[in-house]
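Deliverable D4.2, example record:
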Amino acid sequence: MYKTFGIFAHVDTGKTTFSEQILYYGQGIQARGRVDHQNAFLDLHPIERERGITVFAEQGIFTYNNNTYTMIDTPGHVDFSPEMERAIQVLDYAVVLVDAVDGVEGHTETVWQLLRKHHIPTFFFINKMDREGANLDKAIASIHALLTPNTVVLTNHLTKEMDEPLAEAVAALDDTLMERYFETGYTRDVFEAALCQMIRDERVFPIHYGSALQDEGISTFLQHFDRLTATNYDAAAPFAARVYKVRHDEKGQRIAYLKIDAGRLKAREALEIDGEMMKVGQIRLYNGEKFEQLQEAIAGQSVGIYGLKNAVIGTTFGDAVSYKAPSLVPTLQSRVVFEDGVSPKEMLRYFRLLEAEDPSLEIVWQEALQEIHLHIMGVIQLEVLQQVLAERFQLMVQFEAPTIIYKETIFTSTKGYGHFEPLKHYAEVHLRMEPAPRGQGITFINECHADDLLVGQQNLIQKHVLERAHHGLLTGSAVTDIIVTLVTGKAHIKHTEGGDFREATHRALRQGLEQVENVLLEPYYAVVMRAHIDHMGRMMSDLQMASGTFDAPFTEGEYVTIHARVPVASFLTYPTHFAAYTNGKGSIRLVFDGYDRCHNTEEVIERIGYDKQADSNYTSNSIFCSHGKGYVVPWQEAEALMHANTEL
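Output generated by the structure prediction step:
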């Protein structure tokens, strides 16, 4: 049986040490490495060894009780959350580590929400029980308060068979099981099978505890994990797989990492990507930095494939599990600064390679300014990128100080009309645009009749709506949270080409924006602050000054906890100030909480200084043709000249 599981934790919770222990007990490695010794098995990159943090999600493989496990060690630092989220998509199970002293921390809450979004059954391991101040009961209480109350503690309970307290705890989670327990007691097979199913259904989340550093509780955890997990991959079914990771080797050749959901894949077999058939080259089963070359990969395995040059993260084959759009998105952006004499456009190729490996970077090439911009999660990520560029491509670059990524949306519904008819070209597009709930992004709906536009032309318009971020009018930031409906359009049997619909679609979107109130959005943090009650006034005052909102403070003994929502721009450097005035004895958690109205719109618009008339990539105007010559029609006058029925 093939099982894939991931290890997750807030930074410095002992995740990599725990992973080493699991690999050792699974006989995947002969000796356990340590982060501080820079010899951990899955810290493959010099950056990880030097910094003592996990940056890249890597897999180790071991066999235990005739089950084959793929274990993925994921980054724990928030700056590398997109890498962690991509790994979640291929898991059968997850293990979340919680510090026995600090309890559940901010990043762990984010991880938990992602695991629930992707429906990954989850085990807890409370680590560092050997530390001074470790408190098992408080750590469990933090899990119950911040994550879930539906837990059972298995350490010291599930040995060769269930003991009475554990049987009662399991029965309490299921009415049918509870009735059976009272009537006939329990039998190991029935109750253990029930617990296994409840774990798979995410109705219960087992807790283990111990110390990875001191090798306490690890062997017991692995025994229980093996007994209580199961998968049902079918190697005889039609082939289905998805690309969850992309890397490039030292020669720049693309390696597409596939999780095979069903069936088999042989070397030299052909796969179709975007209408093009591509032959599978090498199939590599990676185990740390080593790999085994396979002639065939089967359901349940995660393998690296050569030859799929068009494969990107999210590419699927057959009836594979759909790849879900990421929840964790960068809120900062930065400009690349090159040394004198270096051509930024020449360097763009290397940044495109990095973008293929991490799509969250969203590399933006600004042709007019000859500049490269990228999206990031935080300043540590910039430091790592700088080192990666130097080591992999011998590029010496600097980055400007990060700035906030703003977005734009509309306040009310509108219609947008775009017409593109220079000589021997023709396309017209009518769109209805409506505000969507925060965080929904751009949604496309097609209400166009086939009598108006061919299905292929309708699909082209959908592609052009969704293929890129579209500039807003206020700051040139990407527009979002809009439902775009294709109402109708027109084409010419002789003169219409595919690119014509791109022009008409972009003009229709822009023309629609011109007719309504546009809203500037900024990213927000959900904040939890805890400190001595003497600091409560300062905390509340700081939140108000930062344009934040907060619930009534909750006091517990001499400490106060405040839950708040604050613009990222106002709180970027606040944790440093908080640590200073609480003398390091307070705690603060910042978790990305989506986008909302900007608290200082006018100031931001003035600072960015975007000129919508000078944006060469977008225009609100349409082009019509008269007497064999194209002419520009301002957006205000375009609707009246449209050829299709504007009353629809």
